[in-house]
Amino acid sequence: MATIEERVKAVTARVLRLNPDDIKPEHHFARDLGAESIQSVELVANFEEEFGIEMDEDAALSVSTVGEAVKFIAEVCKQQGVSA
Amino acid sequence: MTEIAKANNTKISFPLIDRTEPNLLEETFNYSLPPLIRFDGPIVEYIDGKPVTFDPQTLKTRDLVITDTTFRDGQQSRPPYTIEQMVHIYDLLSKLGGPNGIIRQTEFFLYTKNDRETLDRCRALGHRYPECTGWIRANTMDDFRLVQEAGLAETGMLTSCSDYHIFNKLKFKSRKECMDRYCQVVDAAFEAGIRPRCHLEDVTRADIEGFVLPFVERLMRMSEQVPDHLSVKIRLCDTMGFGLSYPGVELPRSIPKLVYKLHREVGVPSERLEWHGHNDFHKVHINGATAWLYGCDALNTTLFGFGERTGNPPLEAAVFEYIALRGELSGIRTELITELADYMRSIGMPIPDNYPFVGRCFNTTSAGIHAGGLRQDERIYNIFDTTALLGRPPRVAITDKTGADGVTLWVNEFFGLKGADRISKIKVHKLARWVMDQYEVHGRLTAISDQELEAKTRELLPELWAKFRG
Lengths: 84, 470
Hints:
Chain A is mainly alpha-helical. In chain A, 56% of the residues lie in helices and 0% in strands. Chain B folds into two domains: 45-346, Alpha-Beta Barrel (TIM Barrel), CATH 3.20.20.70; 364-468, no CATH class. In chain B, helix 2 runs antiparallel to helix 11 and helix 12 (368-376) crosses helix 14. The interface between A and B is small, with 10 and 11 residues.
């Protein structure tokens, strides 16, 4: 089964139309991966769908790097009793 | 450096007053009313080289009123209204002005059968306000017969006072001949038992010391000979929009000085002074409010400013100015302004989309960053509670600048969601993406209509549609 990091990278690659292998944990969504405002919203929506969770909008949109997203999603999954 | 510049060189330091809670200045911006106009001291104007003090607190106690000339000056800018249209507008004006008669009077032509029938039908509605007055040219004494037959207690009459009018238009041989003629007409009004309201046409281009003040002084003397209810009223007509509100401006263009001279030096009571402006220099509303401020109780207006050439002080703007100066609604029903605008559109009077208070987009934002602010707290980008006062919630126009925040606001407004029920932008990302693609992928150049968005909401957000519209 894929790890949270692999799934986050897969979603990010699909939304931003990138190669998943080119995405690193330290990459900043906007600065390094080119995410525009609407794509940030789409990323959060797709993460929710991928993991079956609900995220606080402001908190989720304040996450800036891939690595932070992995930690944030892991924490939300834990809080909401979702196995990831 | 000039002496004035030296005297004003009073630089001081301003340390930050740190806070952790916002100070929203709600004593002024309380949102349930238009922002209040609050004065923190007297107003000083230099007149004839001497400082003269005006107390703005009198605005709260004087009987400030709005008068209307939609059917007279307003009708000079368009094809005639039908009788039914005027009766309906009159009815709405009465409801708008409320039981205290903040919209105190409106004036009617009296020359045609239709003019007279309109007046009769408006009065048949039985409203106390606006009081119906007449407007006559008063070139002949027969005009007073019209006013008498109509049973009106007051009429406006032309008493043009600039030399442009006295000599070049009316062809009087001298100012004295002109003044004598005007006073004859006023006498005729007295004899007919009609209160004359002298319209000092072109006063902002007149010789104030040489003609206006002597003429009005004579009118005041004549008024002393008749009962109070016949005493002459004075309408200051800024016929070409030349009036200026700034302190320090010279006569005849200075509104503060004009009002001061007539009110305090000639002795025309505030309640018998009225300002009538025109918008040729985009100053029409503030000029009217300035006349109020300096001692003129009545502000003459037209609905949405429709009037001769560039128009008159907009009535609805005067309504909000009144509320802002008084700090209370005083019985005014502001929601009627929206109804009046809808009615005027329905009879073919165009109102620009960006026109304050009633234009289709007056409280619509299309910038995403503004829509984001609106989404968090509508007070950030809405002038006052437009939902309560005008029945017009703040809106967003959907364009390429709107962003997900604006689309989210539109969806929440569309479904009428409040408080915790309001949905986040994460839930509307498909609709936001469709909007962006309209511009980025398909090269669209027009705003997206509500109808289009409604259809796309149904298609792309079926769960929300089923929950709130199903």
